Amino acid sequence: MLSSQPSNALPEAVRALAEADFGTVAQRFRDAGFAVALPAKGIMTVKPADGQTRPAVLLSVGVHGDETGPIEMVAHAVEALSRAPQQLAVDLMLCVGNIDAIRAGKRFIDADLNRMFRAQRGALAGTAEAARADAMIAATAAFFDGAGPVRWHLDLHTAIRASHYPTFAVVPELIEQDRKQALVGWLGAAAIGAVIMNPKSSGTYSYHCAEHHGAAASTVELGRIGTLGQNDLSQFADVAAALDRLLRGEPQRQAGQPHVFKQVQEIIKHSDAFRMSVGRDTQNFTALKRGEVIATDGDTVYTVQHDEELVVFPNPDVRVGLRAGLMVVRVA
Ligand SMILES: O=C(O)CCC(=O)N[C@@H](CCC(=O)O)C(=O)O
Ligand SMILES: [Zn+2]
Prior knowledge:
Belongs to the AspA/AstE family. Succinylglutamate desuccinylase subfamily. The protein contains eight helices and 15 strands. By secondary structure, the protein is α/β, with parallel strands linked by helices.
């Protein structure tokens, strides 16, 4: 009888990355003469052994454990590169964020890891994710401290709900102009539909890398959450191709310009009395009109301040003190 794989078997490269098992790819890069380090669980850096200065690229996936599409995409990209290691043209740091949450298929275990990258953690201190963020912060600093001026961080996520733009990115406004332009150019080459310029940290990993390491950093949302191994990666073929070119130092192909939005309000949940007027299933980038109520929180009423604002990441279920949504306006 022919042996057959169960239909739900994961490709080995995807299983390995989801379990933060770098054994095979690390060995391939070592065999090709690279200096490979594993500074913390789920983190691998790959650099030329001769110490030459190259662009530094940090790729992170699984910062939210149920956002599995990017894990699959990056697993395939790194697997292919490790089989042709001399094509790697950058210093690479690969970070699998919330390993326990990936295993559990949940956004997080105790608290949202992507709110821990801030000086004051308040009630988030002491959670499982706070310790993980500390390890990521230390490894990230070590990686960028030794790097040259060209620094990238692509933190790959997926949205919880549907979006008017199936792919979009959040870009910290404080990134230096030339680097931001290069980043938005890359996002365009990756056919990312929209970019949100973010003036203020919400404690995210990408904002941290922009603020503390001068990286051209972005949270990139690729479709919606899904089961590991069952994501339709054909939706992200342009992103995968642009990523391959970035890692191989090849020129990008022009695929278009993302629509540009600017964050104008951050909706914070201040108490258990917080209520959102928009439903949980409201699509990202749904337009609301001036004066419409977005949310109430006791005496605080969040209303639309511009003729039109679009709601992104509406989520009343976050912890008290955290962001329950963003309001954006179109600028280009
Ligand atoms: O769909 C949602 O509500 C959340 C998707 C997600 O995890 N988004 C990131 C964005 C981070 C940023 O603002 O840069 C997050 O909320 O952490
Ligand atoms: Zn996420």
